[in-house]
């Protein structure tokens, strides 16, 4: 019985501490801080880096090709597993019937 009382007091303590943490986190989210000059300069577009920037269409197409290749490889692996299982079953059936 003492164990149950101890558990309830621990759980109520954890519950109350989690509620106060949630209130603090919620109050922090309400504030908005303007970016400073340094942050704005870091986020500004740099002409020297423009040639290294990835293009959306190219990245999207490359991602699509990667997805297709992944599906093909997975399908090939599944087929190999299936083919080996069938061959093993046929070998067992042929070996068992000739004896």
Any idea what the shape is?
A: flat
Rg over C-alpha atoms, rounded to the nearest angstrom: 31 Å
* Structure summary, number of beta strands: 0
Helix content: over 70%
Uncertain segments of ≥5 residues (pLDDT<50)? none
Q: What proportion strand?
A: under 5%
The SSE order reads: HHH
The count of helical stretches stands at: 3
What this model shows, in words?
It is built from 3 helices and no strands. It has 99 residues and is mostly helical. It has a domain at 72-98. The longest helix is centred in the last third of the chain and has 43 residues, at 56-98. The protein is flat.
Outline:
The protein is mainly alpha-helical and 99 residues long.
List the helices and strands and how they pair.
Blueprint: H1 2-29, H2 37-43, H3 56-98
Key descriptive features of the protein:
single chain, 99 residues, mainly alpha
